[in-house]
């Protein structure tokens, strides 16, 4: 397109994980790119999601280590948790990553357009009084912390956005939602000394995980003294100077300093011109084909606004995919079930592929084989004093289709798990690989030895 200062090969609306990845890869492939962002590049993940929550979780781990040092013969005591200091550490981590990302974007000659953008035509995005024209448009406007109908956020009723900026530690907290976000905050606050109760309408905590993992997770939380109420829906909340008062549909009531609403994230698509330009929306999500094309002109969508897993690394990979698609490289489509998932609580949960239940639905009960390897047989897990297991799901006489783990630091093992699932490895393929000793990674090797029919540190 003619370059008049407002015309680009690609205009990306939204500078989060999906948007900035699309911009970086497109620029790398020689495209001219405008990246529109109303807030800060990096989006929710960097500023209000993945990075700050994991910084809090690391501080929480240090608090627990200080309390439990005597267990290892190191007599330490926890003097106090200084939320001012914790928040400064968290903000410093964000600041360094943000500065690095800004440098990357600048080095690729990507024009960052600051302001609220709106799709105004098949090739145009309006930002203030400036009209940007793109031969291709990539929508990556991300998500927001959802609430429930009639449940207003304010005062002592907060979402993760406000929870990340608290400069005080609640004495008690009720968390509405036992998924990833709720479980991670429950873990942090418990480590900081908060009395925590989770309210989850579904039958299990981390309900999207394999049921065996969910049950083990609940046992671990119970052992930590984290309370939870499962299988009953939230009815309402009132608040006063003393705190919040939560009522469930079965009449149970809970009182606490704060209520954290962690019922998932909604797509940020309202008022952005999507429907007016003919895009198909379903409950606010932008519907695309498997190649992330919206069906309108040269408009693509990536990240949390596309139905599926709302994970930063999914959006990031989708951004790369769309840039390569636009450049004519015909990249392979992304298999959603092959995207790794991690809950960074204590204990951690890591999974990739399908659950045992889903595998049986897909292939039939008689065609699925599962194996659980207990971390009790793993030397490094004993050193770390963690409990848990690795569960493998395979097609009978076929490849492994699911890897599910629970225990300290298992999120660091998911890399090998996702390679195994995505490369459709057989147990015999992995069993012959050498895993370093003593590592937790070795537990994966032992699990595959057992699944291949030659268990060593496991009972068959």
From TrEMBL:
<keyword id="KW-0274">FAD</keyword>
<feature type="domain" description="FAD/NAD(P)-binding">
    <location>
        <begin position="8"/>
        <end position="319"/>
    </location>
</feature>
<dbReference type="GO" id="GO:0004148">
    <property type="term" value="F:dihydrolipoyl dehydrogenase (NADH) activity"/>
</dbReference>
<comment type="similarity">
    <text>Belongs to the class-I pyridine nucleotide-disulfide oxidoreductase family.</text>
</comment>
<dbReference type="InterPro" id="IPR004099">
    <property type="entry name" value="Pyr_nucl-diS_OxRdtase_dimer"/>
</dbReference>
<keyword id="KW-0560">Oxidoreductase</keyword>
<dbReference type="InterPro" id="IPR001100">
    <property type="entry name" value="Pyr_nuc-diS_OxRdtase"/>
</dbReference>
<dbReference type="Pfam" id="PF07992">
    <property type="entry name" value="Pyr_redox_2"/>
</dbReference>
<feature type="domain" description="Pyridine nucleotide-disulphide oxidoreductase dimerisation">
    <location>
        <begin position="339"/>
        <end position="447"/>
    </location>
</feature>
<dbReference type="InterPro" id="IPR016156">
    <property type="entry name" value="FAD/NAD-linked_Rdtase_dimer_sf"/>
</dbReference>
<dbReference type="InterPro" id="IPR006258">
    <property type="entry name" value="Lipoamide_DH"/>
</dbReference>
<keyword id="KW-0963">Cytoplasm</keyword>
<keyword id="KW-1015">Disulfide bond</keyword>
<keyword id="KW-0676">Redox-active center</keyword>
<dbReference type="InterPro" id="IPR050151">
    <property type="entry name" value="Class-I_Pyr_Nuc-Dis_Oxidored"/>
</dbReference>
<dbReference type="InterPro" id="IPR012999">
    <property type="entry name" value="Pyr_OxRdtase_I_AS"/>
</dbReference>
<dbReference type="Pfam" id="PF02852">
    <property type="entry name" value="Pyr_redox_dim"/>
</dbReference>
<protein>
    <recommendedName>
        <fullName>Dihydrolipoyl dehydrogenase</fullName>
        <ecNumber>1.8.1.4</ecNumber>
    </recommendedName>
</protein>
<keyword id="KW-0520">NAD</keyword>
<keyword id="KW-0285">Flavoprotein</keyword>
<dbReference type="InterPro" id="IPR036188">
    <property type="entry name" value="FAD/NAD-bd_sf"/>
</dbReference>
<dbReference type="InterPro" id="IPR023753">
    <property type="entry name" value="FAD/NAD-binding_dom"/>
</dbReference>
């Amino acid at each position: 397109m003619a370059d008049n200062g407002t015309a680009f090969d690609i205009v990306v609306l939204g500078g989060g994980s999906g948007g900035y990845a699309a911009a970086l890869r497109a620029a790398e492939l020689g495209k001219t790119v405008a990246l529109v962002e109303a807030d800060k590049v990096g989006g929710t993940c960097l500023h209000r999601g993945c990075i700050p929550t994991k910084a809090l979780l690391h501080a929480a781990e240090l608090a627990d280590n200080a309390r439990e040092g005597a267990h290892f013969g190191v007599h330490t005591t926890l003097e106090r948790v200084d939320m001012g200091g914790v928040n400064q550490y968290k903000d410093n981590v964000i600041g360094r990553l943000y500065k690095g990302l800004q440098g990357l974007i600048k080095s690729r000659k990507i024009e960052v357009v600051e302001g609220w953008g709106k799709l105004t035509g098949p090739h145009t995005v309006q930002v203030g009084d400036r009209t940007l024209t793109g031969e291709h448009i990539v929508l990556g406007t991300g998500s927001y912390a959802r609430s429930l109908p009639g449940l207003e956020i304010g005062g002592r009723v907060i979402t993760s956005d406000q929870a990340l900026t608290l400069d005080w530690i609640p004495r008690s907290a009720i968390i509405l939602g036992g998924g990833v976000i709720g479980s991670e905050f429950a873990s942090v606050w418990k480590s900081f000394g908060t009395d925590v109760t989770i309210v989850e309408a579904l039958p299990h905590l981390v309900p999207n995980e394999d049921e065996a993992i969910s049950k083990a997770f609940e046992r671990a939380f119970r052992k930590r003294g984290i309370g939870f109420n499962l299988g009953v829906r939230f009815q309402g909340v009132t608040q006063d100077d003393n705190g919040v008062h939560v009522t469930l549909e079965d009449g149970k009531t809970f009182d606490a300093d704060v209520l954290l609403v962690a019922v998932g994230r909604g797509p940020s698509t309202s008022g952005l011109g999507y429907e007016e330009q003919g895009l198909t929306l379903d409950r606010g999500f932008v519907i695309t084909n498997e190649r992330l094309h919206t069906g309108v002109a040269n408009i693509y969508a990536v990240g949390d606004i596309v139905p599926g897993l709302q994970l930063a690394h999914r959006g990031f990979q989708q951004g790369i995919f769309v840039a390569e698609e636009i450049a004519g490289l015909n990249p392979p489509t992304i298999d959603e079930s092959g995207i790794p998932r991690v809950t960074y609580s204590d204990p951690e949960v890591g999974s990739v592929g399908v659950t045992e239940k889903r595998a049986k639905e897909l292939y039939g009960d008689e065609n699925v084989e599962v194996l659980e390897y207990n971390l009790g047989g793993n030397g490094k897990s004993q050193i770390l004093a963690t409990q848990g297991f690795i569960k493998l799901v395979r097609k009978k006489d076929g490849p492994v289709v699911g890897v599910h783990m629970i225990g300290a630091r298992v999120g660091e093992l998911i890399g090998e798990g996702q390679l195994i699932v995505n490369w459709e490895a057989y147990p015999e393929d992995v069993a012959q690989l050498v895993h370093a000793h003593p590592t937790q990674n070795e537990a994966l090797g032992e699990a595959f030895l057992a699944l291949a029919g030659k268990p060593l540190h496991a009972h068959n």
